[in-house]
């Protein structure tokens, strides 16, 4: 199964020192940086957009391998995921993870074919993200069944298949919420069928909840408050990694 990847969420970092927080976290042993993008529509909160990502990107070396250290894992909690693909690619995003729920309900303003009135399907969006040279992730909220993903993952066309699935273990929108163990059967079901898929969990991960998530088969671990609220972030990062590798 795929390697353990620890991805601190910079949502819980000091936004006035964001560039430094990014480089410090990588030095403390993080693999990826989890960058939460919120638009105030898809979720009831706002963070920042591509111009900020452009600036903080320069504080961290680009990954030299597909899943390498320094990957900017952008979690797009936005109502129009297709609209922002180009801007985030230009900003230095390496992995563009959109929400299934947003993709199926948004009408895209920007499509590869230039047809502005077309609905976004997850597979078209994944293809577009890949065409721009990024990895593609698809996220599901707690209320969304994992069953919506099977057709997408079974697609014989490689360019239209996601590189990662994100199973939310809190309602998206805020850091510091309690872990929902009720979401773990989704991870188990995904891992049973896809031994090599990156499966990311996000929300409420810490030293107390990591074992359940790792046991279910998650390999990409997001942690915001657990890392940035710690006295010793490096120790938390290594404990999370050990739990996944165990
Ligand atoms: C929530 C975000 C998470 C958040 C996790 O909407 O997607 O990435 O930062 O924060 P913690 O780890 O504190 O639950
Ligand atoms: Zn997130």
From TrEMBL:
Keyword list, A-Z: Carbohydrate metabolism, Cobalt, Isomerase, Manganese, Metal-binding, Zinc
Tree of life domain: Eukaryota
Binding site for substrate: 9, 75, 173-176, 204, 224-225
Catalytic reaction(s) noted: D-ribulose 5-phosphate = D-xylulose 5-phosphate
Cofactor: Mn(2+); a divalent metal cation; Co(2+); Zn(2+)
Pfam families: Ribul_P_3_epim
Family the UniProt entry places it in: Belongs to the ribulose-phosphate 3-epimerase family.
One of the protein's GO biological processes: carbohydrate metabolic process
Keyword tRNA-binding among record annotations: no
Active site: 36 (proton acceptor), 202 (proton donor)
Involved pathway(s): Carbohydrate degradation; pentose phosphate pathway; D-xylulose 5-phosphate from D-ribulose 5-phosphate (non-oxidative stage): step 1/1
Protein name per the record: Ribulose-phosphate 3-epimerase
Signal peptide: none
Lineage: Eukaryota, Fungi, Dikarya, Ascomycota, Pezizomycotina
GO MF annotation: an example: D-ribulose-phosphate 3-epimerase activity
Record: residues binding a divalent metal cation: 34, 36, 75, 202
Record has Mitochondrion as a keyword: no
EC number(s) stated in the UniProt entry for this protein: 5.1.3.1
UniProt enzyme class: isomerase
Annotated cofactor note: Binds 1 divalent metal cation per subunit.
């Amino acid at each position: 199964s795929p390697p353990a990847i620890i991805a601190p969420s910079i949502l819980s970092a000091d936004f006035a020192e964001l560039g430094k927080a990014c480089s410090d976290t990588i030095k403390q042993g993080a693999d990826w940086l989890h960058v939460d993008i919120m638009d105030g529509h898809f979720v009831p909160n706002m963070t920042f957009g591509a111009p900020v990502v452009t600036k903080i990107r320069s504080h961290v070396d680009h990954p030299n391998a597909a899943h390498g250290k320094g990957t900017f894992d952008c979690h797009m909690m936005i109502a129009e995921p297709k609209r922002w693909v180009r801007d985030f690619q230009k900003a230095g995003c390496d992995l563009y993870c959109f929400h299934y729920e947003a993709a199926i309900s948004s009408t895209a303003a920007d499509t590869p074919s230039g047809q502005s009135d077309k609905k976004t399907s997850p597979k078209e969006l994944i293809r577009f993200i890949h065409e721009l040279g990024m990895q593609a992730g698809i996220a599901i909220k707690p209320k969304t069944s994992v069953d919506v993903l099977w057709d997408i993952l079974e697609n014989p066309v490689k360019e239209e298949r996601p590189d990662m699935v994100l199973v939310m273990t809190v309602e998206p929108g805020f850091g510091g919420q309690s872990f929902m163990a009720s979401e773990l059967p989704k991870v188990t079901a995904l891992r049973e069928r896809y031994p090599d898929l990156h499966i990311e969990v996000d929300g409420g991960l810490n030293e107390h909840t990591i074992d359940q998530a790792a046991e279910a088969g998650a390999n990409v671990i997001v942690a915001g408050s657990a890392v940035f609220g710690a006295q010793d972030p490096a120790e938390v990062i290594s404990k999370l990694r050990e739990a996944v590798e165990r």
